[in-house]
TrEMBL record:
Protein name (Swiss-Prot/TrEMBL): glutathione-specific gamma-glutamylcyclotransferase
Domain of life: Bacteria
EC annotation from Swiss-Prot or TrEMBL: 4.3.2.7
Keywords in alphabetical order: Lyase
Ranges in a coiled coil: none
Length: 203
């Protein structure tokens, strides 16, 4: 589980595998040759990163996903053609490293296809020493940040909902994310009900 040196990921030969566990699952944003369900062991998916740019602001932080130590994570492995390696890495760094909250690393992932092979994939793991590392938040705290969060990429609740849909489309569940999505869904219903009541009163 060695760290990547900055030149090696762009100069290595062969195709590049990229492991997506959050928004990359439903909006990779780069060209790829193959998309395979995969499992990474040693880190788990968690809403453990305060978002100051994409889904929040420093004044009203949102919450986005990171790979945090321990456990395992199911996601998607994307195979990028060697000719696109430099371009894709540059894109991912611009997208994921806007505040350098992640460590760019290579991790072994197990592809969940007929071959069941293990490959080395580029992944973005949360830096626990970074000011945006939120640690283990309660569901209520997660909910509060997600409801308030809105940044350059839109509403934080949309990020959570889209990720849950992507997870469900792959045929598995992430218990805490699903619980949060249900809370957000309940909020939406409450808001719609309040809007209907307000409409009736204004007639």
């Amino acid at each position: 589980m060695s760290e990547i040196t900055l030149p090696s990921v762009t100069t290595a030969n062969g195709d590049l595998w990229v492991f997506g566990y959050g928004s990359l699952m439903w909006r990779p944003g780069f060209d790829f040759e193959e998309r395979v369900p995969a499992r990474l062991v040693g880190e788990h998916r968690a809403l453990c990163v305060y978002s100051f740019v994409h889904r929040g602001t420093p004044e009203k932080p949102g919450l986005v996903l990171g790979l945090d130590r321990g456990g395992a994570c199911r996601g998607i492995a994307f195979r990028v053609a060697e000719k696109n390696r430099v371009e894709v890495v540059a894109y991912l760094r611009a997208r994921e490293q806007v505040t350098s909250v992640y460590r760019e690393v290579m991790r072994s992932v197990w592809l969940e296809n007929d071959a069941r092979q293990r490959v080395s994939a580029l992944a973005y793991v949360v830096d626990r020493g970074h000011v945006q590392y939120a640690g283990r938040l309660s569901l209520a705290e997660q909910h509060r940040h997600v409801v308030q969060g809105h940044g350059q990429s839109g509403a934080n609740r949309d990020y959570v909902t889209a990720t849950v849909k992507a997870i469900e489309a792959e045929g598995f569940r992430d218990t805490q994310l699903h619980q949060l999505a249900l809370m957000l869904h309940g909020d939406a219903h409450s808001l719609h009900a309040a809007d209907r009541d307000e409409d009736r009163e204004s007639r």
